[in-house]
Each structure stands twice: as structure tokens, then as C-alpha cells.
Amino acid sequence: MSIAAGAAAFGGLWAQGAPLGTAAPRSNPHRDVVMDARMRWQRLPKNWQEAPFLANGYLGVQAYAGQTPQVLKFMLSHTQVQDQRIQWEAGIGLSRLPIGAITLTFAGAITGVDWTLDLYNAELGGTITTTRGQVAFSAVVHNDLGVLLVSLDPSAGESGAAWGFAPLVSATTRTVRKPPDYTANPDPEQTDGYCAQPLIAGGGYTTAWREKRVGTKRLFAAAVAYSFPGSTHTRDAVSLVGRTVTMNPDVLLAWHRRWWNDFHQRSFVSVPDKQVQRFYWIQLYKIASATRRDGPVTAEWGPWFPEVGNSWTAVWWNLNVQVTYPIVNSANHPELDAVTETFRRDHANLEVSVPPAYRDGDTYALSHPGDWRLRPGGVRTVGVPGTPSKTDQTGNLLWGLHNVWLAYRHHLDHSVLRDVLYPTLAKALNFYRHFLFTGPDGLLHLPLTRSPEYADAADCTYDLSLIRWAATTLADSARILRLNDSRVPMWREIAAKLVPYHEDPADGVLIGDGVRLADSHRHFSHLLWLYPLRERNWERTADRDLMTRTFRHWAADQSAWHGYSYAAASSMNSVMDQPEEALRDLKFFLDRNIVADTELTANTMYREGSNFAIESPITAAQSVVDMLLQGSGGVVKAFPAVSAKWPDASIAGLRTEGAFLVDASRRRGATEFVRVRSEAGAPLVLDHGIDGDIDVRDQWGRRLPWRPVGPRRIALELRRGSTVTVTPRGARPDFGPRDVPSLGAAPAWGLPD
Fold it and tell me: 132, 452, 465, 641: which has the fewest C-beta neighbours closer than 10 Å?
């Protein structure tokens, strides 16, 4: 059956308007590129690594084969559903908990599927064929209500297809350091219409469901509610699905679609490699499904439950969160920035990660794993540098706060700087201040810490880079906020006297004092100063040499690299003006090469062993942006690292540091325009990339004064809310976004055949 027929399954109960397969006027490029990225399934997915996915930042659903040929499973998960046994470390005692699966049992065995995941509307639709008939269906996780809605339109042979619920054991799936006295939560209490799961610590979670029928058509609703320490979860879940099925389904769908359609209008990316373009839009859909500003910061599962063998049951702050969230800034989606809101809301919990002897009321740290409230659980701390208790977690908090700095820099919202970053970063730097000491050379040194996942080292580069960034940022922030803070001279002294990174003439920056990178290393911890901290500038010759030597030594052996290693390498190559290498690293990852037992899966999820790790594909979306637009060090660069293989590209609404929104077009190998809107009135240096004479005009077409500051680079002043457009002299291009011509056929993501 066609895609349109599947989408029309809600007819009567759910008026679809123009179904998925219906041609529409090509007047909305945003819609067109996102619709082009829709994922296809023409084979029944078997597990989370193959399945389509729906979510709203809280309730997550994946659809795939059940335990028997007659069963289709809708696996449920929820970002707030966790244990509350805080006596154990977070991966155990505050672990995300399995919920269970809504099941749909057919009369016949499933023999085929034809499904489409429409990213623009966040809807899964299509047909399921069995030995007894066929069922057209559509499914959404309603964006605002957090309810799974599934419409069925079965043929006569499958009119009896039956809904059910199969709960999972309410226990952590983590086995690392699992205490011998750990026990699962009590058995669930299941009745017709809901399944309540109490927790030993109090509270619990309930899955509730109801179905509404009109003739042969059926609308099914399911929801999960969580409460702690109270026990309102059953009442909440039952009430939510009860209210939902009484609402007008047409209104429900329009309500849901409105949020998602508006989401996809906020920015635009089109490149000629449609594998890359579709992947990019899927990652934006994925992160919007996984997180929302006021909700939990994303854990390793996102909002989806990996059914087999996953040991990463909480929030990992040693890289995973940090590389997931930059895309929300550059793609202009502040509504997804859960990191800033997490630190705003729960910063007081950071004191618990500080070793007890250093808890002075003015010191913060961040251990992992933790829960989404920044609690490490048990007695876990970041350990004490220079002692056997040291860990590789000393820099977690500073790196996490760099995400908040990026949020500030992309919007120049001083309330974020004043209320979130400044006070928390000062306390985070205080942890390191306990251990910095003046050496015989008069410089500040750091005792033994651990470079993440590699080796112990004094003057560990990872830590030094974060200390230097934090001290500099605090001093700059006090100036920006016009604060007369007595600590500023101390921060400036730290930045000035901190020991330089230890180097080798051939290999560049070392892991730390006397510790070389001798083996392949998936983590780029000793390269944070290069990216994302951007401490060095490629345009300075001395910096260029050090950046090149260090990066090439790290990249020389990729045998232990994982997905995020390739994404980071791609972005580093982009900031080092190496576009062909940047594209090569990205494509190696997207072409689903398996390295060190890792894999980008058919549905663009990512596994490491049997573990679900959400961060690698999402950070690869940022790698795409880094090829197309950069805005760091006071310079906005249009198309700074676009491969010669990409003669065309189009962007709109992408955001850079300085609170600039940028539209630009590249056609037949040349930039035809760059348009920049200033939200905050910050000074603008624009690397426009246009050869020859240029026109520089405001939003009304009037010429603007500017001055050259380098080849294809100009400086100018923009008032808050004003716009500048730069074009070749006399050119009058079409300034709208466009889906650029394709380099060739590319299959849809999913299981298209």
C-alpha cells in the first residue's frame, strides 16, 4: 500500500489533510528538505538499532518486531523515569528504569511493512501486511501532551488486532559496580487499562492506555506518568489518556504538527551530498525528540530504551553531554538547551561531587555518571588530584559549563552570563585552586590527575586547557557584567601564570608532563584547547604549527576511534581550513564503517558494543555546520570549509557567536551572497568569501559603510535588529533558501529495501 494510504489511516478519527505522499506546491524549501529526509522501512525492524523513533523530550517510542511473528512492539521509555535509591551511585541507585512495551497482536504473522517516518510532522505512518490481511496506521508521540497516539484502519482479516502491555522488570540494567544487596523494585500492579510500577524508595510510574473506535477505525492512546516522592502517577496517567481520547483528533494532530513545523522553519541547511543533508535533518529531529529546555538533559539512551545489555543508564558528563548540545546553538534552537537550565535549576547539587574535605560552600565539581538533577549518588566524587583517589572527572564541570558559555555567546543574553555561568564557573574553578601550586619556575602547576580514558599525568593538558579557559572567561565576564569583583586579579593571575602545555617538537602538545600519546585514543581530551575551546587561532603562524602537529599525531592512528572521534576530527579540520579532510572524516562515519565494535546504525542511532550512545551522530551534525559557517574569535566566516566536491550550498537562520543569524548561498563554486542579522548589535567582522568588488547594503537596500580588514573580509557596525547583505558588485541573487542540486542518488535512511 502507498505511503498516502498509510497516512490516511486516521481518516474519520484523524483527518490528515494532505497525506504524506500527496504532492504540494514547492513554496516552502524548509518543508521540502525535511520531507526529503524522511526515513523509510520496507523491512520489519528487529530492534532499537533499526527501528523508527518518536519522542517529545520525555516519552520515547520505537516500533519493531515482537517476540512472535504476530506481534508488533512499541517500546516505551521516559526521560524522567528513574530510581531514587540515592545510597548507591547514580548508574545503579538513580538509574533510568525500563518501562515496557505496548504490543499489537495480529491474527496473522507479519509478512511485510511499508513505513515512512515523516520528520517534518514527526509522524510514523504506513502499512503492516500479515498472512491474514493488512493494517494502515499512523503514530505520533504528541508533542505537548506526551501521549502515544496510534490510529489503525485494518482490513477485515485483521479487525481483531489486539492491544496489550508487557512490563519490564523495574531494575537497573547496569552491571558495573552493582552492589550485591541490590534488588529490583516490586512487581508491577497491572489491570485492564493501566500498569502501575511502585518504587522501593517511594513514588513510581504508571503506563495507562485506552482505545476509541469509530466503525472499523480505531484510535489508541498510551501515556507514562512518574511521580516521586508522592504516588500520583497512576491517577495522572489514567487521567491523561482519558482526557486525550475525548479530544478532537483533528485538533490534536494540528496542535502536534504546529510545533514540529515551526521547529523546522527556524534554520535551513542544504548541501549537494544528499546522504549528508538527510542525515543532518534527521539529527535535528532526533535532538528535538530527545531533549527540551525545561526537561532532563539527555542521557545516553535519549528517551529510548535499548532492550538488550545496556550499561549506560544515567547521564555521562565526561564528554557525552558536552558534545551533544552545541548543535542547539548553531541550528538556532534555544528551546532545546537543557544544559543551561540544568545548571540554573540544580547547581546546588554540584557540591555533592566535591570530596568532603573540600566542601567549603564555595566549591563545585561534577562526577559521572549522574542523574538529570546533577546528583552522583552514593559517595562518588571527582576524587582528589595528586592522590590515589584522583579520577579523570576533574574537568567535567568546566567542560559542561563551556556549553553554557556557548549558549551565552550565541545569544548574548546577559542573564545567562550573570545568573548561571558566572557564579557556577567561579565555584568550579575553586576546586582546581585547591591544588594549583607554584613551581620552581614561578609558574602554576597541577599535581597528578588523569587524562580522560588514557593516562595519569601531572600538568594534564585536558585540565590545564579548561582551567585557562575558565580563568580567562571569568575575568572577561566580570568586565562584560561591569562587576567590581575582588577575585578578578586572582583569575587573571591564574591565566597568566598557568604552566604552558608540555610539547614535543614532532608530536605537538602532550597528554601532560612527560606523558606522550603513544597509542590510538578515541577521546580528544588533550585537544580541547584546539576544539571546542578554540584557544588557538589558525590564522596565527605559531598556532597553526602547533595545531597541525598535535592533530596529525592524534589522527595518525585511528584504530581505537569511535564515532565522536571522527566528528571531532571533521570539525577540527574545518577550523584548520582543511575542507577535504573534514568531509573525508565525516563521510567515513556516515558510510557506516565499523571501528572498534562501534556502528552508526540503519536508523542513525549509534552503538558501542551493545550500548546505546546518542552523542556521536548528533555531534556529527555540528560537524556539518562547521563546514558551512563558523563564528568564533570575533569573526563570522561563511562557507569556511566547504569541499570542492560541493559546488553549491544554501544556509539560512544559522546562528553564530555574537548573536548573528546568517543566510548564505554558494552556487557553482562561488559565494553569491551572505546576509547577517544582528540580534545584539555586537561588532561584526565578516569573512564573506566573495572575490572581487562587493556591494554592502542594509535591509532596505541602502549602502552601508565598511572597511576591509583582510582578503574577502570586512568590518562594520550593525545596530541591534539590523541586517547587512554582501553580494558581488551589481549582483541581484535570489536571497531565499533553496534545496541545492544533488550530486547523485542516495538511499533513504532506515530500511528502505
Answer: 132
Bridge pairing between strands 684-687 and 635-638: parallel
pLDDT value at 25 more than 90: no
CA quadruple 222, 228, 234, 239: dihedral, nearest 10: -70
What's the alpha-carbon Rg for the chain, to the nearest Å?
26
Q: What element of type H or E holds 503?
A: strand 503-504
Please report, to the nearest 10 degrees, the dihedral formed by the alpha carbons of residues 194, 198, 199, 204 taken in order: 50
Element (H, E) at 615: helix 615-628
- Give Cα 316 distance to the centre of its chain: 13
Angle at the Cα of 543 (from 538 to 546), degrees rounded to 5?
115
The three three-digit cell numbers of residue 259, written as one number: 510545533
Q: Do residues 206 and 234 touch, judged by C-beta distance below 8 A?
A: yes
Give the number of other Cβ atoms within 10 Å of residue 575's Cβ.
24
Q: What is the mean pLDDT of residues 697-720?
A: 96
Q: Average of pLDDT values for 481-490?
A: 98
Q: Is the pLDDT of residue 288 over 90?
A: yes
- Please list the alpha-helical segments (H only) found in 298-389: 320-324, 326-330, 338-346
Distance between terminal CA atoms of the chain?
A: 15
Output phi, psi for 213, to 5 deg.
-120, 140
Question: Which residue, chain included where needed, has cell 585547591?
Answer: 434
Q: Find out whether 399 and 322 touch, Cβ atoms under 8 Å.
A: yes
How confident is the model over 238-258, as pLDDT tens digits? 999 999 999 999 999 999 999
548 three-class SS: helix
Three-class SS of residue 541?
helix
Peptide bond into 532 cis (omega under 30): yes
Q: What is the mean pLDDT of the chain?
A: 95
pLDDT of residue 610: 85
Q: Classify the phi-psi angles of 421: left when phi > 0, otherwise alpha if psi is within -120 to 50, otherwise beta.
A: alpha
Q: Is the peptide bond before 303 cis (omega within 30 degrees of 0)?
A: no
pLDDT at position 593 = 86
Q: Is 393 exposed, middle or buried (0-12, 13-18, 19+ CB in 10 A)?
A: buried
What pLDDT, on a 0 to 100 scale, did the predictor assign at position 596?
A: 73
C-alpha 93/C-alpha 748 separation (Å) is 40
